[in-house]
Amino acid sequence: MKLVRSSPLVLLLAATLCFVAAYLSNRYGQVPEVLLRAETTRLQNLVIEAQRTAEREADEVAERLQGQALNFNSLIGLTTYPCFVFEGEKLLYWSDHTIRPEVANAGQDFREKLVDMRFGQYLVLRRSVGRHVILTYVPLEKRYGISNRYLREGAEQALFRGQMCG
């Protein structure tokens, strides 16, 4: 009988402890540094996965290029990200017409670099195959000359959707 009478006090105490624990968790559990670290890790994983995909696809483009089996039709369906094949400074094949690659990138010696273009920022991956150069542009951020809801929220391949890179 005594347990029944004291149980509302016990329940009130338990509820108070739950509310205090929830308050402390919300107050100190979401410190900006913790959230920033989690977001940074998520973005790093996105970039690493996109880079792996682009490198794997560039390897396949290189195989077809060496086997003389590369053409526009096979390149368009083969790559996730815009891919361009150069011979010297001459552009031979491309998988995407929405961006124009910088010819200077084909002549430079790099493995990867960040490129700021008119319509966004891209991670450019370069791969040499004999006298050919394969450039893959992984979109990190896309910009448009106009701004409306569809372009901001529309389907796109940019990794950092709605976030500013630089």
Explained architecture:
- It is elongated and about 85 Å long.
- Helix content is 48%, strand content 22%.
- Strand 3 (112-117) and strand 4 form a beta hairpin.
- It has five helices and five strands; from the N terminus they run αααββαβββα.
- It has one domain (31-153): Beta-Lactamase (2-Layer Sandwich), CATH 3.30.450.
- It has 166 residues and is of the alpha+beta class.
- Strands 2-1-5-4-3 form a five-stranded antiparallel sheet.
- The longest helix is centred in the N-terminal third of the chain and has 35 residues, at 32-66.
Summarize the structure.
It comes from Hymenobacter qilianensis. By secondary structure, the protein is an alpha+beta fold. It has helices at residues 2-28, 32-66, 72-78, 103-107, 149-153, and strands spanning 83-87, 90-94, 112-117, 120-129, 132-142.
Helix-strand blueprint:
Elements: H1 2-28, H2 32-66, H3 72-78, E1 83-87, E2 90-94, H4 103-107, E3 112-117, E4 120-129, E5 132-142, H5 149-153
Antiparallel strand pairs: 1-2, 1-5, 3-4, 4-5
